[in-house]
Every structure is written in structure tokens, then in C-alpha cells.
Design a protein that fits this description.
This protein is mainly alpha-helical. The protein has three helices and no strands. Helix 2 packs across helix 3.
């Protein structure tokens, strides 16, 4: 819901009116991140994004999200 269905944030986020600085997940910055960095952000949060460890308690599911982020173009 925050980053949008295609990870473009500004184009398709349902929260852009409330949180205007949601980063897109298909940028060069995210592409340059190591998988572990993305996993860490999902688990612990970063900036205004809180931890998703409680909502996604299964570590394999979090790694699946990392893999999904890698598919965004």
C-alpha cells in the first residue's frame, strides 16, 4: 500500500497524500542495495517506515519480499 503495486510510490501509492516522501523501490539506489540491507529495512524499519517483523514474522516470507522487490522494473 505504501510503495504502490509496482513499487513506484509517487505513481501508485495510496498513501502519497499523507506521506509524500515514500521512496520508489525501482530506483538505482534500491537496485544497488544488498539483499541483506532490504531485509534489514523490512525487519527493523527505516525513516518513517516502521518494522514489519510483527506483521511478517516468518523470515522466509521477508526474504520472499526481498526477491519480489528485485523483480520490480
Amino acid at each position: 500500500i505504501c510503495h504502490g503495486t509496482q513499487g513506484r510510490a509517487a505513481d501508485d501509492s495510496k498513501l502519497k497524500a499523507y506521506i509524500p516522501l515514500i521512496p520508489a523501490l525501482n530506483t538505482e539506489k534500491v537496485k544497488a542495495m544488498r539483499d541483506g540491507q532490504i531485509y534489514h529495512i523490512i525487519t527493523n524499519g527505516q525513516g518513517v517506515m516502521g518494522s514489519y517483523a510483527g506483521q511478517i514474522p516468518n523470515q522466509q516470507d521477508r526474504w520472499a519480499i526481498v526477491n519480489y522487490v528485485r523483480t520490480l522494473k
